[in-house]
Amino acid sequence: MQLSRRSLLKATAVSGAAITLSGGLSATASPSKAAAAPANNYANGTGDWLVGLGLADITGAPAGQGMMGFAQEDQIAHGIRQRYLARAVIFVDKKTNAPLVHVTVDTCAFFANEMDELLSRLQKTYGGRYNANNVVVTATHNHNSCGGTSRDLAYVLAAKGHQENSFRCEVDGVLEAIARAHNNIAPAQLYLGRSKLYNASKNRSVSAFNLNPEHDKREMPGGIDPRVWVLRIKRGTKDVGVMTWFATHGTSLTDNNTLVSPDNKGLAAYIWEHDEMGVDYMTTKDPFVAAFIQTNSGDMTPNLWLRKLHPSGPTSDNVLNNAIIAKRQYDACHKAWANAVPLRGSGIATSHRYVDFAHEVVPGKYTVDGKQWRTVPTVMGASGAASSEEDNYESVVYPYIREGDKGPFTKFWDWDRKNQLLDADWDYQSPKLNFLPLGYLPVKGWNPQELPLTIFRLGELVFVCGALEYTIVSGLRCRRLVSKRLGVPMENVIFQGYTNSYCQYCVTPEEYMAMQYEAGETQFGRETLGAHLKHYDAMCDELLGRSKPYKSTTNRAYKANMWIPSWLPAVPADTLPKGKKYGDVLLPPPATVKRGAKLDVDFQATHLNNKLYRGSTYHEVQKLVGGKWVRIADDFHYDTILDWRRPDGSKTESITRVTWNVPKNQPTGTYRIVLRGDAKNESGKLTHWQGKTKSFKVV
């Protein structure tokens, strides 16, 4: 994801460590002191672990608000391709009752303010049981989620400020997923599988990757990370969940998309959950959960043709590409899942801390040149402003500024040299050309300077987690260090980015010198990776019981940004054209529809944001079964699209189109389309309405 260049230009013109160890590496606090342990009867059933699983809808405002990921002001949502979800898995050590909460969210990021709100509400509900030490929330980095959920100014400008409605949906949904997992904790068995996937990613910054040493490049054939890890979760003979890690960006649908969607990883999860396991997202109490999780995907694109400002591949159709990349991940995961063997080892161990990345001294043992370096406050480079040219159709500065700090006006932006703004720090950012010195601007809170790091162990597996977007070699070096320090095979160390906060990229110091997009967005300077290695090394000491917990402040910096409002105009009261009522069918279906055909139906409607229907649906495709209408598709389904618009010349009327791409294997029969919504009057009162088409035949 890149910061909003256009928005930032406008705006600047006016302006602890905590450690929980159990199960072998070190001792932890007495489990009896943990509040609000699950009420489940663990004596029922068998298994080596206790595991709970839950999922929940986290979809925010789907109409008239900016989307999150590409930071394009004109990428305004106007409907839903698919709702996006949170998937929670809670592991509990049977011996100590110590928990680990892992949540995967189909969003671009889970920001610091969202994490803080989540932890605060978990404290109120469960006491100290679930806290910063044992809760991990990681984003799939989907670039089609709802914008405005952060309180860091750089990440809400394109969405025109903080959007409380979408923020609440995401946090409420994550809490709901955790609660559902908490309430179904039961004995389970874990199985570990591995495979390789070579045709779902390409390196979009090969010139930077090639600057790495040969021994690093040998680990990444073709400049990609093909590794797929799978954790299979069973209760007896029943499969109840799967977690899988693979590196590719959530940018298949590109910045031309304006329909809320989970992109390729969310769709891969849908294929497994819905298509294979029959999950109904609106009614299933204890569903099968499939979490497709990111690793070090900073330089990995799913747009395989690597065309500049025309993202495409393996076809020229971005929607089809999304489905293909999703299916390839599903297939690779399924292969590893089928060959999985029992997870060895036992117990849970975690080390967690917050690090002030704006002021880290990095000793020579962690730097490339062996000299002491330091990190400095955040700076967005000119090449970062250029966008990832392989994933964007639009770059607002192209061709004047391009990746690699190229372009006729690139050096114009190096204005720190004129103003001596960063004179004391600049050697640590060089050769970056300053585009916007976010960490130095007089109004604080543009992006976070303090970020969380986590290492956790689950049996024989060790997970190294960070908040940034890490290139494949950055992740490799972190894995290598932790593997060596903890004496764990490299194949059992998994790197996981996009975790518990967000602040752009981390490249290797060698890659930094190429000043591709990822380097320009490596905010804290050339040795950002070295600062990570320093702290991961110290965290290994904690896990081994060789040092006391690191003292750090908690991430509360965002509270200074509570002033960030939304500057979107309020949604006006709904109105109707003369002679119409809400729910009227404006474009009816034909009497018969063939399987494999596309069906469009238009309704007289209201603004979707009047009521967001989180966990529910605006529309349904219903089939007549035994004299009763039965829902067979809704907002969660891949075969339908909800598309909202204002008719020409109106600022208060709404038309919503439901599109059903009828599957080729759809059972024949009698069907209808239903749409519901809520009309808002001048006083803000909502009145529910529902519209239905006449029945039609699928033949």
Structural class based on helices, strands and sheet pairing: alpha+beta
Number of DSSP strand runs:
35
- The helix tally amounts to 14
Largest sheet: 9 strands, mixed
Ends distance: 44 Å
Overall 3D shape: globular
Provide the helix percentage: 10-25%
Regions with little confidence, pLDDT below 50 for 5+ residues: 4-46
User: Gyration radius, to the nearest Å?
Assistant: 25 Å
Write down the overall mean pLDDT. Answer: 90
Strand content: 25-35%
- The tally of domains stands at 2
Cofactor: Zn(2+)
Family: Belongs to the neutral ceramidase family.
EC number: 3.5.1.23
Catalytic activity: an N-acylsphing-4-enine + H2O = sphing-4-enine + a fatty acid
Topology, please?
Blueprint: H1 5-13, E1 18-21, E2 49-57, E3 63-68, E4 76-80, E5 85-92, E6 99-105, H2 112-126, E7 135-139, E8 145-146, H3 164-183, E9 186-196, E10 202-203, H4 206-209, H5 214-217, E11 227-235, E12 238-245, H6 263-276, E13 289-293, E14 300-301, H7 318-338, E15 341-342, E16 348-356, E17 361-362, E18 373-374, E19 380-381, H8 382-385, H9 416-419, H10 426-429, E20 434-436, E21 450-458, E22 461-465, E23 469-470, H11 472-486, E24 493-496, E25 505-506, H12 509-512, H13 517-520, H14 528-543, E26 585-587, E27 592-593, E28 598-605, E29 619-625, E30 628-634, E31 640-645, E32 654-661, E33 669-680, E34 686-692, E35 696-698
Parallel strand pairs: 6-7, 12-13, 22-24, 23-25, 27-35
Antiparallel strand pairs: 1-16, 2-5, 2-9, 3-4, 3-8, 4-31, 5-6, 9-11, 9-15, 10-14, 11-12, 16-21, 17-18, 19-20, 21-22, 26-28, 28-32, 29-30, 29-33, 31-32, 33-34, 33-35
Helix pairs in contact: 2-3, 6-7, 11-14
